[in-house]
Amino acid sequence: MRVLANPELTFAIHEDGTLEVLTAWYPRVLFTPGVLARADGRRLVTRGDEVEIRCTNGRAVYALGPPDAAGARYGCLMEETRC
């Protein structure tokens, strides 16, 4: 049996505060409560059970599943663009 770790989205943060995604938009990502709490409405936007990540080189929308015991939620990729 092979157990794979959760993929991590990696970003560069530019001097002006914009994000640049450095990894692929993975089909399933775990969002911690801390990440969701920091949604600023500009780079990270939450709308109900969706999260949108906006970067200088693309964007992605994830549908959030129910929270686990620690409050983390898995997101399933619904839409992505690359610039």
Describe the 3D structure:
- The protein has 83 residues and is mainly beta.
- The chain has a domain at 25-82.
- The protein is built from one helix and seven strands; from the N terminus they run βββαββββ.
- It has one helix at residues 33-37, and strands at 11-13, 19-21, 28-31, 44-47, 50-55, 58-64, 73-82.
- The strands form two sheets. A five-stranded antiparallel β-sheet has the order 3-7-6-5-4. Strands 1-2 form a two-stranded antiparallel sheet.
- It is globular.
- It starts with 10 loop residues before the first strand and ends with a strand.
- 14% of the residues are buried.
- The model has no long low-confidence stretch (mean pLDDT 92).
Overall morphology? globular
Taken as a percent bin, the fraction of beta residues is 35-45%
Helix-strand category: mainly beta
Low-confidence stretches: none
Write the layout of secondary structure elements.
Elements: E1 11-13, E2 19-21, E3 28-31, H1 33-37, E4 44-47, E5 50-55, E6 58-64, E7 73-82
Antiparallel strand pairs: 1-2, 3-7, 4-5, 5-6, 6-7
Summary tags:
7 strands; 6% helix; 5-stranded antiparallel sheet; two-stranded antiparallel sheet; 83 residues; single chain; mainly beta
